[in-house]
Amino acid sequence: MISKIIIGVDLGGTKILTGILSRDGKVLGTPVKIQTGGTEPVEMIIKRITDSVELSLSNIGSSISDVMGIGIGATGPLDIDGGVILECPQLPTMHFFPLRKTIEDYFGVPVYLNNDANCLILGECIFGAAANRKNVIGFTLGTGLGCAIILDRKIFNGSTGTAAEIWPSPYQSGTIEDFISGAGVSKIYKSISGEDKSSLDVFHLAVQGDEQALQTWKEFGAHLAVPLSWSINMIDPDIVVIGGSIANAYNFFKISMEETLKKWICPVPSQKTKIVPAELGDFAGFIGAACLVIGNN
Amino acid sequence: MISKIIIGVDLGGTKILTGILSRDGKVLGTPVKIQTGGTEPVEMIIKRITDSVELSLSNIGSSISDVMGIGIGATGPLDIDGGVILECPQLPTMHFFPLRKTIEDYFGVPVYLNNDANCLILGECIFGAAANRKNVIGFTLGTGLGCAIILDRKIFNGSTGTAAEIWPSPYQSGTIEDFISGAGVSKIYKSISGEDKSSLDVFHLAVQGDEQALQTWKEFGAHLAVPLSWSINMIDPDIVVIGGSIANAYNFFKISMEETLKKWICPVPSQKTKIVPAELGDFAGFIGAACLVIGNN
Questions:
Q1: Which residue in A70, A148, B5, B232 is a FRET match for B225, CA 20 to 30 A apart?
Q2: Residue B1 has what pLDDT?
Q3: What CATH superfamily classification does A5-121+283-295 receive?
Q4: Distance of alpha carbon B136 from alpha carbon B139, whole angstroms
Q5: Could you tell me which chain B residue has the CA closest to the CA of A170?
Q6: What's the CATH architecture for B133-278?
Q7: Considering only alpha carbons, which residue of chain B is nearest residue A155?
């Protein structure tokens, strides 16, 4: 009997990253990265997705008959139950497009769709920083604030598929995403230095020991304690995983985040709840998408 | 075959309310209300609990052999898995007392323990405002801010039994409970009128049409939208039930709560998620406690 392989597709507005995973979490061959061309006609985007799957398979000398299923982690919002992309700003030609069914019809294998933040944290729950934990919250810190809840290795989607979408929650005079986002890091840095820098620049400056950049990450950590405390108080998880591009700066915001958080959570979880950085690195997106197949089998 | 009855005990720092429920949610006989004497020796409190159960049974001509189980909803914090009262400020003589085992040994029937806010909302999920809903959040607005999550008619306790304990979460310069509590209502009223009044007084004044009291409830509703938005964004429930003594003022804070909330939750839930007042009234505490037995059978 051949151990079947799984395909994960990380579908963003800018790039598609597709890779193959064994049942025990090993990446097989070299993942395929291509430009999404997110504003081009939907047929072209679908062709790029199917091409990336076929190329990944031919790279390891396999065919679709070896594939157990395909998981797609897409930038949202999505209709998860229906397998449909909703009015996603990064994929304007795909609004209300039945992505899951289209890919399923093309390849004739089961296809699962969920949002990229959910997939990323699902991957960490199965093969990464939260492996073997029952009750997990994940934060994805990138352009915006993503969050996911994983209970017993299943993504908790809520009643309308928007569970853990905490980005519009109120904070100060706006929303929490005004601070917990790439733009938020830039805004904090500007309030300290008067200069415009991207969050990546502020990270590199911190690596070089720049005081204003280090202060920015310290303040960012204190702001991050706000959504962490609300979500830990709500879910009471075993562990919180922090991933996404901004998590590269984890060691610069860790101490202020932890110190501020202690004031705002219940005594027992403040002793017990672990907070850790994500472990799966650059491939976390497609590994997590592939985990949708594992979670459903 | 005799249809077995269920006993619910609502154990607060001030009073014990014990009643009998049929399997289909009917209150049988007259519930028994006695003073807890929360600061007296633990043996005396236990005797009052067992007396209240025996008196409830004799009132309807039943005995313990007719009882399927006893549910106790207690003021917390609790070790729910262990069935133990922790360092509860309202029950100082009961710290670390094994309440569940003590009552179980006395009566020889299964006993279930959970916190009063969880029980209250569980009751609403089984027989009240959220009957037949899968995914429910409940808020209990009284002296403090209680919250509960009920998934598939089971209380979601989290990893350390503190799921939904959102009261210490940050808001403005303090915690959300500084506003969403009896003391919070008094503080808002004082900021408007300069006068000290209890939340009950502010409710009665609003009933009489007092402008400052009406303004207080309007502001309270806007503050209440803060924990509502964070918890709705996190859980994406079918329905939110608002109970507790302060929910008597529901119609005074409803509009400002709903209007403010719309700004801070995702587009889909903002259309679909229902928010409703609790329905079970004065007996909600012991009915909810009794529902612990139904939920476990």
A1: A148
A2: 42
A3: ATPase, nucleotide binding domain (3.30.420.40)
A4: 10
A5: B264
A6: 2-Layer Sandwich (3.30)
A7: B235
